[in-house]
Amino acid sequence: MKKEVQDLVNAGVMLPLMEEFYTIQGEGFHKGTAAYFIRVGGCDVGCHWCDVKESWNADLHPPTAIESIVENAAKYSKTIVITGGEPLTWNMDPLTEMLKSQGMQIHIETSGAYKLTGTWDWVCLSPKKMKLPTKEVYKAANELKVIIFNKDDFRFAEEQAAKINENCILYLQPEWSKRDKMVPLIVDYVMQNPQWKVSLQTHKYLNIP
């Protein structure tokens, strides 16, 4: 990548755009809501069960001017979800400022592993053991969504829940490939610990993107 372009990406006025699409939010608090998703490339958190590993290498995704991203988003929805990859790899201030100028409601889905930039109406924090969230993201989280791949993830979920703010909504979500095994365990756990809720990837059950 040319240095001039890399400088623009580092500043957040261009972003490595993997894909953008209009669909139904399938997970967490806003499930069932029509939303425009902006998936930004780049992630070094390295979850072995990640279902979007093609997002990890930012160099595979074209640096795209945020003006173009916002123009496309404005055609479809007032609810915008920024996801990745790990979007906080990049400076989100310029993109969210421009989306806000268009009257958008902006959500982020993040592992929280990097500095919290951007202005957000909703922060979905999905922490990962390999690279824990920053203190500021714990404080800002509206929803904590812990992926349950094995039984030890229940312990991890409680560790994470002890760090977030008191108004944050708590979700346990089965990793898709383990759903048949983990859903019964999650249901039992939530019934015994009702401060938690069950989150499912409903878009996969509905067979939508």
Question: If you had to describe this structure to a student in words, what would you say it looks like?
Answer:
This protein is an alpha/beta fold and 209 residues long. The protein has one domain: Alpha-Beta Barrel (TIM Barrel), CATH 3.20.20.70. The chain contains seven helices and nine strands; from the N terminus they run H-E-E-E-H-E-H-E-E-H-E-H-E-H-E-H. Strands 3-1-2-4-5-6-7-8-9 form a nine-stranded mixed β-sheet. Helix 2 runs parallel beside helix 3. The radius of gyration is 17 Å and the shape is globular.
Task: Give structural attributes.
alpha/beta; TIM Barrel; 9 strands; 29% helix
Task: Present the secondary structure layout.
Layout: H1 3-11, E1 14-24, E2 34-40, E3 63-65, H2 66-74, E4 79-84, H3 93-101, E5 105-110, E6 122-125, H4 135-140, E7 143-148, H5 152-161, E8 169-174, H6 179-192, E9 196-198, H7 202-205
Parallel strand pairs: 2-4, 4-5, 5-6, 6-7, 7-8, 8-9
Antiparallel strand pairs: 1-2, 1-3
Q: What is the count of helical runs? A: 7
CATH level 3 topology: TIM Barrel
* Overall number of structural domains: 1
The CATH superfamily label reads Aldolase class I
How much β-strand is present in the residues? 15-25%
Using only C-alpha atoms, the radius of gyration works out to 17 Å
Note poorly predicted spans: none
**How many distinct beta strands?**
9
Secondary-structure-derived class: alpha/beta
Largest sheet: 9 strands, mixed
Shape: globular
Name given to the CATH architecture: Alpha-Beta Barrel
Q: What is the average of the pLDDT values?
A: 92
CATH class: Alpha Beta
The amount of helix comes to 25-40%
Rounded to the nearest angstrom, the distance between the terminal CA atoms is: 30 Å
In spatial order, strands of the major sheet run: 3-1-2-4-5-6-7-8-9
Q: Could you spell the SSE succession in H and E letters?
A: HEEEHEHEEHEHEHEH
Cofactor: Mg(2+); [4Fe-4S] cluster; S-adenosyl-L-methionine
GO molecular function: 4 iron, 4 sulfur cluster binding; carbon-nitrogen lyase activity; magnesium ion binding; S-adenosyl-L-methionine binding
Function: Catalyzes the complex heterocyclic radical-mediated conversion of 6-carboxy-5,6,7,8-tetrahydropterin (CPH4) to 7-carboxy-7-deazaguanine (CDG), a step common to the biosynthetic pathways of all 7-deazapurine-containing compounds.
EC number: 4.3.99.3
